[in-house]
Amino acid sequence: MEEFDFSMAGRMHLAQSMTDGSADERYFLWVPDWTEDAGEKDYLVLLNTGTRLDMKFEIVYRFKAEFASKGCCFAISRDGRTALAGYAAKKGVFCYDCESGKALWNNPKIKRIAEVRFNNFDENIIEVRNNKLEITYLDRQTGQVLEPERAKAVRQVITLMQASKNGKFLMTADTFPLKSQAGYTVYDTETGEVKGRFVAQCQRNPRPFDVTDDGGLAVCSAYQKQGVSLIRVSTGEVLWSKMNYKKVCGASFDADDRRVMVRCDNDGIYFLDISSGETVERITGEELFPNPYGADVLHLGRKLARIGGHEISSPGFSWKKAVGTRDGVLMLLPGNRKSAFYDYGGNLLWESGELGGEAAYLEDEDLICAFWVEYHKENVTDETVFEGKILLASPRDGQIVAQTELSDDACAFIHHNKTIVCSTGKLFDVSGGSIREIEEPFTFAIK
Q: DSSP H helical segments within 6-132, as ranges?
């Protein structure tokens, strides 16, 4: 294969193969000269034979196809053999065989295309999104729109999840690489029914969105420009939007679902009235984690935490999150496996290199439940390896009492029935001091 000197500086017309919701940096589709329209232009399929940090490219296939410098999007299959091109105007979707350069099919009926991709769970299904972020599903072999019954069975791609405080509702997001928006779905965790679907702004922060305990309202945020919005779940109606909050790093409802808490980088936390969206209170320079067991935990500039009247300095770059228990507070550090436990007198009781990621306190069992997932590849030509764990530990000494392997990317904790739900639908019960996989998975399907 021919070596290729490829600069990663220009990514506008670059597509990567995708697997399990994460970028598989193995095959790339690249248009070297993407500044002008052309009836025929070189498309290159590149194979990264190096690593993610030290990339080395070889040209696997080269073919010619029409190109539009604006309103054009691409996708490539995991094996690098099939490419998609979607055009915002007139031409629709093309499917190419990369080895021969032959156009396998063209569906010109799909309009206003913003993104094309192969479904992560089933590459025989192609997802096409328009500029309103509505999805059309195509058959990979023919390019025809899927029949309604088959489309209903398409597995939803999930990149982020968040459960309501009582665990009755689960809110999922499918984010888009080139847009600060996402397709949201709210599920009833007891029946599996869809409470509502809508499109709104999104960001990849620890808690960019939330849903109320009755599943009726959702709050969505974006780091820049789009601020914070309150949305009626059943209809997708935006009840109010506030654009004056900048650098929003998270939004959630308070304990009573009466206020929206908005956390802004370097600007503190705002409490908004749920009816009007107006600011009713502001705390500057702090992040608030309400604690039902006594002293509030306030993060001061992310580096310091205050437990009651005691200030605790983070041993790492910053504190990420706090989880209150009857005996003290579990402080989570950035990274998947780091935490420290302090009593309400501000004394460090123990540290852990295993408990981290996301955590919750199981009050009736007096146990901490934590789970984390990370993914890596020894070499870029290898499959992406997911590694993670669910752990139950004692808050008194951090001793792990039960653990199991976890290999899914996006996960959430459903508190009211002590269940971990994964983006693939896999469920784990974490009650009775043990962890077991539930046989019947949760169904994330397009219904």
A: none
pLDDT tens-place string over residues 192-225: 889 998 988 887 666 789 999 999 999 999 877 6
Backbone angles phi, psi at 55, to 5 degrees: -85, 135
Tell me how far apart the alpha carbons of residues 411 and 424 are, in angstroms, rounded to a whole number: 9
Question: Is residue 8 pLDDT above 70, yes or no?
Answer: no
H or E segment and range at residue 376:
strand 367-376
pTM tops 0.85: no
Determine how β-strand 427-429 pairs with β-strand 436-438. Answer: antiparallel
Q: Which residues contact 436 (CB under 8 A, 6 or more apart)?
A: 404, 428, 429
Determine if residue 441 is left, alpha or beta; phi over 0 gives left, psi from -120 to 50 gives alpha, anything else beta.
beta
CB 116 within 8 A of CB 72: no
The CA–CA distances, whole Å, from 382 to 3, 25, 376 equal 20, 10, 10
Q: Please give the C-alpha separations between residue 245 and each of 222, 259, 433, in angstroms, as whole numbers.
A: 10, 16, 43
Distance, CA of 168 to CA of 213 (rounded, Å): 7
Taking alpha carbons only, the member of 396, 442, 430 closest to residue 185 is 442
